[in-house]
């Protein structure tokens, strides 16, 4: 006799476990901000908004809210580029170093 291997789906069916989730497409929109630091001593000088952008994610979740929370968490690691050096610049007439950071504005599941 040969034995037949059962897949995990069969195991879960026998245990009565069901997952009522669905696949959600989530768009995360974030603000791009330039931060300016004094070229001579590195002190913070200020920041300026530089626009917005978005990333799309796909998550399996039980509710749209759960999918949005997962997307925000994922975006925190993949969308984030806090402290990314952009090059030399000028802020209020002074030479400075420019860094980019991103701030999540919204997440919308569909």
Would you spell out the secondary-structure blueprint of this structure?
Blueprint: H1 8-15, E1 22-38, E2 44-61, H2 64-78, E3 84-91, E4 94-109
Antiparallel strand pairs: 1-2, 1-4, 3-4
Folded structure, characterized:
This protein is α+β, with helices and mostly antiparallel strands and 110 residues long. The chain has 2 helices and 4 strands, in the order H-E-E-H-E-E. It has helices at residues 8-15, 64-78, and strands at 22-38, 44-61, 84-91, 94-109. A 4-stranded antiparallel β-sheet has the order 2-1-4-3, covered by helices on one side. The longest helix is centred in the middle third of the chain and has 15 residues, at 64-78. The protein is rod-shaped. It starts with 7 loop residues before the first helix and ends with a strand. The relative contact order is 0.28.
Descriptors:
single chain; 21% helix; alpha+beta; 4 strands; rod-shaped
Terminus-to-terminus distance: 49 Å
Please tally the β strands and state the result.
4
- What form results from the Cα inertia axes? rod-shaped
Provide the residue-averaged pLDDT: 83
Per DSSP, what share of the residues sits in E-state strands of 2 or more residues? over 45%
The largest sheet has its strands arranged as 2-1-4-3
Q: Low-confidence segments, ≥5 residues, pLDDT <50?
A: none
Assembly form of the protein: single chain
Rounded Rg: 23 Å
Order of helices and strands: HEEHEE
Number of helices: 2
Biggest sheet layout: 4 strands, antiparallel
Judged by helices, strands and strand pairing, the structural class is alpha+beta
Helix fraction, binned, reads 10-25%
């Amino acid at each position: 006799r040969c034995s037949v291997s059962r897949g995990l789906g069969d195991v879960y069916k026998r245990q009565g476990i069901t997952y009522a989730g669905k696949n959600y497409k989530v768009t995360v929109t974030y603000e791009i901000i330039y931060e300016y630091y004094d070229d001579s001593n590195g002190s913070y000088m200020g920041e300026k908004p530089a626009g917005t952008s978005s990333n799309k994610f796909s998550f399996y979740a039980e509710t749209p809210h759960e999918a949005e929370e997962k997307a925000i968490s994922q975006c925190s690691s993949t969308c984030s580029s806090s402290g990314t050096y952009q090059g030399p610049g000028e802020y209020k007439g002074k030479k400075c170093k420019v860094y980019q950071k991103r701030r999540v504005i919204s997440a919308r599941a569909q």
